[in-house]
Design goal:
The protein is mainly α and about 80 residues long. The chain has a single domain, classed as Non-ribosomal Peptide Synthetase Peptidyl Carrier Protein, Chain A (Orthogonal Bundle), CATH 1.10.1200. The protein is about 60% helix and about 0% strand.
C-alpha cells in the first residue's frame, strides 16, 4: 500500500476520533484534544484497518500524525519482509 494512501487513511481516523475538521501533519495528538483513551481507540482503529499492532510506548516521545504514519508504514513493511 502506498504511503500517501496510508497517510490519508490515518489522517481521517485522527479527524474522526478527535472530532476535528482537519489536522496538521506535525501537531501533537494531545495538543489537538487527544487523551489516553482516544489514543487507544486510534491505535485499535489502525490495527483494524492495516492489520498492524502499534504499541502505546512507541508514542510517548512523539505523537504527531507524521510519527504515527511512519510507525505504521514501518510495521507494514516489517510484515512484508
Amino acid at each position: 500500500m502506498e504511503e500517501k494512501i496510508i497517510e490519508e487513511c490515518i489522517k481521517k481516523l485522527w479527524i474522526d476520533i478527535l472530532e476535528l475538521d482537519n489536522v496538521d501533519f506535525e501537531t501533537d495528538f494531545y495538543d489537538l484534544g487527544g487523551n489516553s483513551l482516544k489514543l487507544v481507540l486510534l491505535l485499535s482503529a489502525i490495527d483494524d484497518q492495516f492489520d498492524v499492532e502499534l504499541d502505546v510506548a512507541d508514542f510517548i516521545e512523539e505523537l504527531s500524525l507524521k510519527h504515527v504514519v511512519e510507525e505504521t508504514v514501518s510495521k507494514i513493511n516489517d510484515k512484508k519482509s
